[in-house]
Write a structure and sequence with these properties.
This protein is an all-alpha fold and 157 residues long. It contains 5 helices and no strands. The protein has one domain. Helix 1 packs parallel to helix 3 (94-110). Keywords: Membrane, Transmembrane, Transmembrane helix. The chain crosses the membrane at residues 43-64, 99-123.
């Protein structure tokens, strides 16, 4: 599967995963349902996942913009700066972490176990075909500085 690395934009993959998560609910009910079934504690958790996911995504993009480096995940060799500040002190992949949190919020809304099983598939694909290729490129670009960063900061959280 050497043709897959860096081929599907992560935002598109997150969207496709969300659509895949909707499928079991649509097949079972004929429509998208869920919000009406969330009770107060679950609603709080769902909203927390949603807002944390959105913040992680936006903070990741903002950090890249401040550093004036590429935000394009399909071209990691175009990175001009190794961003290690802001949300990048918590996660080497805050935008992808944000996507997982947003997908988690969607799973809570849908209340369907089959939908939730799509999240580990997303993470697995990202680890193997996106992040692995990015890490290889960043290691080539930034050498020991990047490897030291990897030792300090976790891939996800």
């Amino acid at each position: 599967m050497t043709f897959l690395p860096l081929k599907i934009p992560p935002l598109l993959l997150a969207g496709l995963t969300a659509l895949l998560m909707l499928l079991p609910v649509m097949l079972r009910t004929g429509h998208i349902s869920g919000w009406h079934g969330l009770r107060s504690p679950l609603l709080v958790i769902t909203l927390a996942l949603f807002f944390a996911g959105a913040i992680f995504c936006l903070a990741g993009v903002a950090s890249f913009r401040r550093a004036r480096t590429t935000v394009n995940p399909m071209r990691p060799l175009q990175a001009s700066t190794l961003v290690q500040t802001g949300v990048y002190r918590l996660s080497r992949n805050p935008m992808y972490t944000g996507f997982v949190l947003l997908l988690g919020a969607l799973a809570m809304v849908l209340g369907n176990y089959l939908s939730a099983l799509c999240i580990p598939l997303f993470v697995s694909y990202m680890n193997h075909f996106q992040i692995g290729a990015e890490e290889k490129a960043l290691s080539e670009l930034f050498g020991d500085e990047y490897r030291a960063y990897c030792q300090r900061v976790r891939r996800w959280l």
